[in-house]
Design brief:
Number of helices: 9
Structural class: alpha/beta
Strand content: 25-35%
Helix content: 25-40%
Strand order of the largest sheet: 6-5-9-10-11-16-15-14
């Protein structure tokens, strides 16, 4: 702070009144306290025996929004980050960012205990709601988190986990879900609206676009998933347009359905014609989805 005062002394040298200098210095200090640079060296680890690195943004608001990336089954947070490349864009846009790992099953494959259908194959007793809550709480102690700006991005099993976490906790402002679904007839009635961008390919052979069965339990179709969140967010009319999203599929293959909602939320469905379970993502994917999240409320 001494160096800051020296820098600004040239602007205040004409004032004989020391009180005037003090007021200027105090105002500057308060501004810096609210928005401060967060160098990479300030990244830290939380999570105990399931550790995860907390990546801080270039500019840190107090409190700051938090983005959580939830990976697909049998992969990892690092693998999913390599696929989506959210980290650099989160850093640039002021988001605290984590990409935690699920629990390993007896085959050594990671999973999230998200629902009856996906993807706790061995019925292990894992409370991932409590785990994610603990990560948020631990981060909040070190770096204040804005409780109204907690965002989830999930792929497949991670999308299932995103849905059920939002339904059970009322902590989530917005979700971006790729190739995910929910158990049929899900218990999902959060007291606060949840913005959703649902992205699903019609040729998905893993989480089928029209719904299916896994672990002897059925899961929703893409349209049923959207309908549930349209109900939660009190959405009705919709408009549609086309966009070129998947680089390996010729032309504007993706239908964008945008819903009109009564709450201050957004509900969109991106239907990728002939899209696979892990579609090729455009180079600006991270910018597109983080823009959706930050504008969701």
């Amino acid at each position: 702070m001494r160096s800051i005062a020296v820098q600004y002394d040239k602007y205040t040298s004409s004032y004989e009144d020391k009180a005037m200098k003090l007021r200027i210095f105090t105002a500057l200090a308060l501004t810096l306290a609210l928005i401060t640079p967060a160098p990479a060296s300030n990244n830290y680890i939380v999570g105990g025996d399931r550790p995860v690195t907390v990546y801080l943004p270039d500019t840190l608001a107090k409190p700051a929004p938090l983005l959580i990336l939830l990976h697909s089954a049998s992969t990892s947070g690092a693998h999913e980050e390599n696929y989506m490349k959210l980290g650099p864009v989160a850093k640039k846009n002021g988001l605290i960012y984590i990409a935690p790992d699920g629990t390993k099953n007896p085959e050594g494959k990671r999973f999230w205990n998200a629902s009856k259908s996906c993807c706790n194959k061995y019925k292990q007793e894992v409370d991932d709601v409590a785990y994610i809550n603990s990560l948020i709480d631990e981060i909040n102690i070190k770096t204040p988190v804005d409780p109204k700006r907690i965002y989830l991005v999930g792929h497949s099993n991670g999308a299932f986990r995103s849905y059920t976490y939002a339904c059970k906790t009322n902590k989530v402002a917005a979700i971006v879900a790729i190739a995910g679904a929910m158990d049929t007839n899900p218990d999902c009635s959060p007291s606060t609206p949840v913005s959703l961008l649902d992205i699903h390919g019609t040729a998905d052979k893993t989480i089928k676009f029209n719904g299916g069965v896994m672990n002897q339990n059925s899961y929703t179709s893409a349209s049923s998933t959207i309908s549930k969140f349209a109900e939660v967010n009190q959405c009705s009319n919709s408009t549609s347009s086309q966009k070129d999203f998947e680089p390996t599929i010729k032309g504007p293959e993706t239908t964008v359905i945008n819903y009109s909602c009564n709450s201050h939320t957004h509900l969109q469905f991106w239907k990728i014609a002939k899209g696979s379970h892990s579609p090729r993502l455009p180079s600006d994917f991270a910018e597109q989805v983080i823009s959706f999240l930050l504008n969701s409320r």
